[in-house]
Structure formats: C-alpha cells, structure tokens
Amino acid sequence: PAIAGIASFCPYNIGPAKCFPSTFYKKLNAGDRIGACAEIRRWIFDGGRDCRIKANNCAGQPVRRGQESELTCWDIVQ
C-alpha cells in the first residue's frame, strides 16, 4: 500500500517537476515516512485555490490527499 500511495501522489497527481524538489520527497528520501505523510496532506491547493472551500470546485483534492497519506504510512501506523 505504501508504494501505491507514493505513486498516486508524486508522479501521477502532482508530477515529477513538483514532487522531486518538494519537502515530501526530501523527507521520504531521508527515511522520515511519517513526516512525508504529513506533507502529502498539505497539498490541498489547486491554481491558488484552497480546495477545502467547496465553492472552489476542487473539494475532492483534500480527500484524495488524505487517502494517499494513509496509504503511504499504512505499515507504520497500523
């Protein structure tokens, strides 16, 4: 499950250009998977719009980030 969470978030949803220089990627490579999982949940903006606000029409993004974070840390927090 962890690899699925990372693959969904990094190359697929945000893309390599944003993923590789991110704090998420740095923490993941440093072995801080719990910190990396927390970073995933911070990616809730789309084009400057806060996706926690339903009127911004991107409300699925925070839900998806939560799912990706849970998958990434599946074997740590179980």
Automatic annotation (TrEMBL):
Alphabetically sorted, this entry's keywords are: Antimicrobial, Bacteriolytic enzyme, Glycosidase, Hydrolase
Q: Which family does it belong to?
A: Belongs to the glycosyl hydrolase 24 family.
Give one Pfam family, short name only. Answer: Phage_lysozyme
The reaction(s) annotated as catalysed by this protein in its Swiss-Prot or TrEMBL entry are: Hydrolysis of (1->4)-beta-linkages between N-acetylmuramic acid and N-acetyl-D-glucosamine residues in a peptidoglycan and between N-acetyl-D-glucosamine residues in chitodextrins
Q: Is-annotated flag, keyword Lipid metabolism?
A: no
Q: Name one GO biological process term.
A: cell wall macromolecule catabolic process
EC number, as in UniProt: 3.2.1.17
Specify the enzyme's EC class, one word: hydrolase
**Record-given protein name:** Lysozyme
Question: Which species does this protein come from?
Answer: Hafnia alvei ATCC 51873
Region forming the signal peptide: none
**Keyword Hydrolase among record annotations:** yes
* Source species, domain of life: Bacteria
Lineage, please? Bacteria, Pseudomonadati, Pseudomonadota, Gammaproteobacteria, Enterobacterales
